[in-house]
Write a structure and sequence with these properties.
The protein has 296 residues and is an alpha/beta fold. It has two domains: 3-169, Rossmann fold, CATH 3.40.50; 187-290, GMP Synthetase, Chain A, domain 3, CATH 3.30.300.20. 36% of the residues lie in helices and 24% in strands. The protein is built from nine helices and nine strands. Strands 2-3-1-4-5-6 form a six-stranded mixed sheet, with helices on both faces.
């Protein structure tokens, strides 16, 4: 008997969805920072065993969109409700059911209709036993049909038990992807994401949310990978901040990104970064489609 299915991870921003995805997959596929809206795309991570294939899907945090990019991000999250064999609704010890209540109502309807919904209470290492028991009771009242799993994705506490429960919940079926495939994304995508992660870590305020990264060239040689990438921002003033005095800020981002890219590919990397202005790209449907924010 072979089990195979889609395990989709949804929830509010900053509850640890990407950390959980990486822990379940065993690879660093989704970037992780302390800032909200770190994940912008729906990213697949595929785990294969002799008798199973789990297709995990990390999604952007659910939010009320203020511009077209955020609308696209919400579309990725909503799409995860449609094709899930197992839905992981992730909350944490500080999260509230009032936040994005409309999305939670959709999850409730799925659960009432018989879908397999696992309610994940993350970051339990940051609370007390009494508070955790109250949270379990609260979420059981909110989603009575859901199975509840208190975990700490960061500390890997409870992740193995969750993994086993997911495996048992998968339907019987043949694998959807080749057994040696890890993800649906390209090498260039992960380079983009690593660079964007360093931007999120290195700049404050609006800068991290106003940029997009695009790899212009990716040349893999025997001993080295040569990469040229462009950081697009929306205004000239942002360009100056990203570059920094005498290029120091951009150089720092490049150094941090190169180290992680080398670790990802296990190979020496030569990385060139450039900064260009793409005015108001976050609100331009054509530009968003160019950057990959389109379900079709």
């Amino acid at each position: 008997m072979h089990r195979s299915g889609f395990v989709n991870i949804v929830g509010n921003p900053n509850v640890g969805k990407s950390t959980l995805m990486n822990a379940l997959v065993g690879e660093r596929l989704s970037i992780i920072t302390s800032k909200a809206q770190t994940t912008r795309h729906r990213i697949l991570g595929i785990v294969n065993g002799e008798d199973f294939q789990m297709v995990y899907s990390d999604t952007p945090g659910v939010l009320s969109p203020n511009y077209r990019l955020q609308e696209k991000m919400l579309e990725f999250s909503r799409s995860a409700l449609v094709d899930a064999d197992v839905l992981l609704y992730v909350t944490d010890v500080t999260d509230s059911a009032d936040r994005n209540a409309e999305f939670l109502e959709k999850v409730k309807k799925m659960s009432h209709a018989g879908a397999r919904v696992f309610l994940i209470i993350n970051k339990i290492d940051l609370t007390t036993q009494e508070t955790l028991e109250n949270l379990v009771a609260f979420w059981h009242n909110q989603l009575p049909e859901a199975e509840i799993f208190p975990i700490s994705a960061q500390e890997r506490f409870g992740v193995a038990q969750l993994f086993d429960a997911i495996k048992e919940a998968l339907p019987e079926g043949e694998p959807f992807f080749p057994k040696d495939q890890l993800t649906d994304k390209s090498e260039r995508f992960f380079v983009n994401e690593i660079i964007r992660e360093k931007i999120l870590q290195s700049y404050d305020k609006e800068i991290p949310y106003s940029v997009e990264v695009e790899v212009e060239s990716f040349q893999e040689e025997e001993d080295i990978i040569r990469i040229s990438a462009v950081i697009y921002c929306e205004r000239d003033s942002q360009k100056g901040i990203i570059i920094g005095k005498a290029g120091a800020a951009l150089k720092r981002v490049g150094t941090l990104a190169r180290k992680d890219i080398e670790e990802f590919f296990q190979k020496q990397v030569f990385l060139q970064l450039f900064v260009k202005v793409d005015r108001d790209w976050r609100s331009n449907t054509g530009r968003l489609k160019h950057y990959g924010y389109d379900l079709t």
